[in-house]
Amino acid sequence: MDRGSQSHDPSILGRMLVAGVLASFFFFVDQVSKIIVRDAVAHGFSGMDVIPGVVGLRYVENIGASFSLGEGFAPLFAVLAIVVTAFCIVYLLRAPRVSWLEVAGMGMVVGGALGNAVDRMLFGFVTDFIATLFVSFPVFNIADIGITCGAVLAFIGFAFGPAGGEGKGE
Which residues are catalytic? Predict the structure, then answer.
């Protein structure tokens, strides 16, 4: 194995360490930000523009999934988060070759999925608070950023990483 392919094919320990750190980071930042927002709302906060016309803070109790779809299925979404987490762990442990982008992306997805699952199980809703003001878009949170950006990174890493492209199957 040449040095070039080693830099794109992390060891199992490296995979789990990087994914675990990123999952923990997104989970922690997501939960702390939600605690701060819920506390602010309890003390009368109703929203504000952070960058006028671009992004603001608006408190929303999302009882569904993305875009509030699937209302009333909070326990199912929590179970789905556990399934996604298990899939990511098994994939990172068993895949013969993965890219660092896949590892990072899956860590972000796991942290975000577990962050929203905790909300669903504790409160029956997900705390959303980041609002885009320049375009009509649902209010979201740090976990959603981890899930979305992580899924994109993992897909790019899968499609163009060491197992993707011309060398696939070797």
Answer: 128, 144
